[in-house]
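Any chance you could type out some protein's one-letter sequence along with its backbone structure tokens so I can compare the two?
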Amino acid sequence: MNWAFLLSSFVAFAAAANGFAAESKPEVLGHGVGLFNVGALVAQDDFANLDRWVIQVQERSGFPPVKVTSRNNSLDCLLPGRGCTAWFKQELSTRVAITYDVLCPTPEPAIKGVKPRDINNFWLASDPIDPVDGLFDASRYSGKFSTYDKIHGYYASTGGGSDAAANLTTRMRRYPREVAGKPAEHLALNDKDKNPEYLITPDKVMRVQLVAYDDAIQYIVDGKLVYEVAEGDKVQVEGRDDAGRTTASDAVYNVARFPVYRKGYFGFRMVGTHHIYTNFRVYALEPATPDGN
């Protein structure tokens, strides 16, 4: 498929559909049913420019140039062989749903270091030392994925993997993965790995929804509840042993061990891919019942 033609078709669709897709409200699924309702639109961006974003791109030689631009009401990110995080500068509080549309085209002709992969997200994220501005410090967060292991926040990923084998994993985590330079145990849900129903469909617009409502955290793609967790749920806790090997154990999620994140920032996260984002929206979530505080 000619990805340049696909791109032009997509941005034309996005512009024409702005009135439809932009107003398509978040889904209420799983733990959300009876817990919250969708409230007012509290933030949005249609990417007329990148003034509201901080872009962090990994430095890595041996690949074609990076291109991160805004055009035709889209954020167009071409990242050959490099990691990138795009932070929305507005701080968000819990009881929100974040939605956006994303296209992950197949490059034709092939581009070194570019595959349909890694539609990833951080939300309610913050730096443990400087919660207000620390995430935007390029000396601490470089675009390389491992530099974000120390942050506080939630993370979800569709189509992860490696340079050699991409679009294989689908996961949700609660960060940090590292504290004071040492591996930290953290919530890590990964039972959808290698399931094609939960991976990227290249050349297709996908809708992502991220929810944070106190202890209830959800990852929804194309109207399908991928992962969710709330206090009392059975979860997997992941860490590393002294030899650096991944360890996993079963646990019950409780906020005493894993406190709720109340505020932080949203970030698009990607590596070695081409993503085109449109219709970024943030909605308030309101209690479904009068006694829901």
In short: Confidence is low (pLDDT under 50) at residues 15-22.
